[in-house]
Amino acid sequence: MQENSLRKMQDADFLYKKIVAMSSSFFIDDTIGEVERFREEANLLLNGIRGTDAVIGIFDHLNYTPVLEVGEKEFWGELPEVPQAERMIQIMSLLEKEYLTFFTDSVKWFTGVLEDIPFEHRMNIQIFHCGIRYKLLDGKPICLFSKGSPIHYDENRKFNYTFNYVQNINHLLKKNFREYWIRISHGENSEYVHTFHSQDKLYSNKDLLSVREKEILKLIADDLDTKEIAEKLYISINTVGNHRGNMIDKLGVRDSTALVQMAKMAGMI
Predict the structure, then answer these.
(1) Rg from Cα positions in the chain
(2) Which residues form the HTH luxR-type domain (predicted)?
(3) Which of 52, 94, 105, 242 holds its CA 20 to 30 A away from the CA of 79?
(4) What is the CATH number of the domain that holds 259?
């Protein structure tokens, strides 16, 4: 299940590159010109990774609404038909009660972050959200991980549309983890990072994981055990264990395997 989560993310990244290439011929004055043709061609591409645990689409940030969704009925269930402008309100109605302020809080923060990014750093922007919980009409719990990547920039390197990949990661997170976190990376090598974690309510220009934690996590991903990692980094076994536990707690994942998967999905390693 966890390997499948990462594979779908890799497939989505591959399709994103195709969508970006395709979108250049459809945008006119920073809006989608031939919407229906764009929708048809994007649907053909996105159908390749549709499934019951993921929904893929294109989101309009000016009007705060999806202009294209693939796999939405399998993912969200049979919801009543509503006008496109009301789609996000419908999805927000499924939020569990402790997350009701997520959208307003995250949009406010996200807007501020984008405004503060200098022109020369406005490239390779990626937006990750993790841990938002919903309950579908049939009672099924959904815990979201999403990745958004701009598909079109204007002359000031501002964007109106993102390619969005959203997946149910209920199987990767601890049931009692009721927090959420956001990560934005950008720059020529995605070297600049902005984060928010609901546990401490802190907005930061530092990553969710420290340099040392990432170093240890990469070795975990390379299948080294705790003793081997301790010897390689000249630290104690207890120190390795403490770092591992801190990373698991911070990201809210179930175990070390889920930790590696989540870090890769969110671009941290």
Answers:
(1) 19
(2) 202-267
(3) 105
(4) 1.10.10.10
Token pair 């459809």 in the structure block, residue? 26
Based on the fold, state whether residues 59 and 89 are members of the same structural domain.
yes
Longest Cα separation, the chain: 60
pLDDT at residue 105, as a whole number: 87
Q: Which amino acid does the sequence have at 80?
A: P
How large is the angle between the packed helices 237-251 and 226-233, nearest 10 degrees? 110
pLDDT of residue 160: 86
- Which of 192, 208, 224 is at the close of a domain? 208
Does 184 lie in the same domain as 109?
Answer: yes
Mean pLDDT of the chain: 89
In this structure, the answer to whether residues 157 and 237 fall within a common structural domain is no
Token pair belonging to 104: 């307003």
- The DSSP code for 106 is H
Q: Is 36 helix (H, G, I), strand (E, B) or coil?
A: helix
CATH number for 105: 3.30.450
The answer on 243 and 124 residing in a single domain is: no
Cα 98 to Cα 143: distance, rounded to the nearest angstrom: 13
**Count of CB atoms situated within 10 Å of the CB of 207:** 17
CB count within 10 Å of CB 159 equals 19
78 Cα distance to chain centroid: 24
Last residue of a domain, one of 208, 229, 261: 208
Q: Once rounded to an integer, what is the mean pLDDT over residues 112-132?
A: 94
What pTM does this model have? 0.90
Rounded Cα gap, residues 99 and 254, in angstroms? 21
Q: Which residue has the higher pLDDT, 12 or 98?
A: 98
- In which domain, by residue range, is 236 found? 209-269
159-213 pLDDT, tens digit per residue, is: 888 988 899 999 999 999 999 999 999 999 999 999 999 998 888 999 999 999 9
